[in-house]
Amino acid sequence: MMNKTAVCIISGGMDSALSAKMAQLEGYEIIALHFNYGQRTEAKELECFRKIALAVEASESYEIDLPFFEQIGASALTDKHIDVPTGGIEEGVPVTYVPFRNGIFLSIAAAVAEKHAAQALFIGVVEEDSSGYPDCRENYIEQMQDAINLGTKDETQLEIKMPLVALKKSQIVQKSLALHVPLEDTWSCYKSEEKACGLCDSCRLRLKGFKEAGLVDPISYDLL
Q1: Taking a C-beta distance cutoff of 8 angstroms, is the pair 32, 59 a contact?
Q2: Mean model confidence pLDDT for the chain
Q3: Residues with Cβ within 8 Å of residue 192, at least 6 apart in sequence
C-alpha cells in the first residue's frame, strides 16, 4: 500500500495542532509547515510549532519566512502602529485580519505538497466560531483547492482538508484532549509571548472554549 503524505499548516495554535493530529491519526505521513510573517508573537508561535511537529512525528518540517507582510502592514498583528483590540469580539472583519494570509499560505503549502507528491493539505480553519476572517470560509478554501489543482501538474491532485471548519471552540478543546493534543504547547494570544493577555479576540475565544467545555486552560494568562 502506498504511503499517504499530507502537508499540515501549523501556526502553533490550538486549531492547527488538532488538525495535524487528526491527519496523523488518519495515517498520513506529516510534512509540517510554519510561517514566520512578522506577527507580534512570532518567536512563541515558532517554539510551539516545533513542539507540535515533534508530537505528530513529522517526517520533515519547513519554517518559511514571509517578511513582506510587515511591509504591507494593514493588520494589528504585523503593524506595531495598530493596537490589538482588547475590548471584546469585534463585529465584521477585525483589524487583526492579515490581508489574504491564508491564500498566500495555501499557495506556498501547495508548492511544498507538489514537491513531496502529497495527497492532502490540512489547515485548521474554523468558520462558525472564528474571529470573522474571510479567508477562513469553507467555500473559499474549496475554491482554492480547485485553483491549486488547475495550476499544478496533472498528477497533482491535492485535497485541502479542514476538519475543524464547522466546530465550536469548546468542541475543539474537547477533541484535542480526547486525542492527547498537547494544549500546553499551543499559543493563541495575539499580543504577548510570556503570558497570554486574556483580552484579545483570540484569547477570549480560547478561554470561552475552555469554559464551555468545563475545562481549565493549561497555559498562563496575565490577568487570571
Answers
A1: no
A2: 95
A3: 41, 222
